[in-house]
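Worked example 2:
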Amino acid sequence: MSSAVIAIVFPIFGVVIVGYLAGRFRVLDRRAVHGLSLYVFNLAIPILLFRVLATTDLPEALPWRYLVGYYACALGFFGVSLYLARLGFGFTLGKAGVFAFRF
């Protein structure tokens, strides 16, 4: 296996394993987990995404056919799931939206 792949994948799985073990052995109490979740989802992830997008080099010509094909299928599947949730299961629009995003 390439060392570049290991250098990218190992830290990700390492953080996941450490998080699992911390939860399994209850290293943090509920208040600490709540505070950590607020920090991660409200600050750390948006900053990380902004940094990655700001420093990404885009190709000269975007592969529009692939992008349109992918997002058209995703939007179509979302629409079918939303329709199924609304009429098939009788969910409200908000619950149907959550249902459609899950699938």
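The mean pLDDT is 91. The chain has two domains: 3-55, 64-102.
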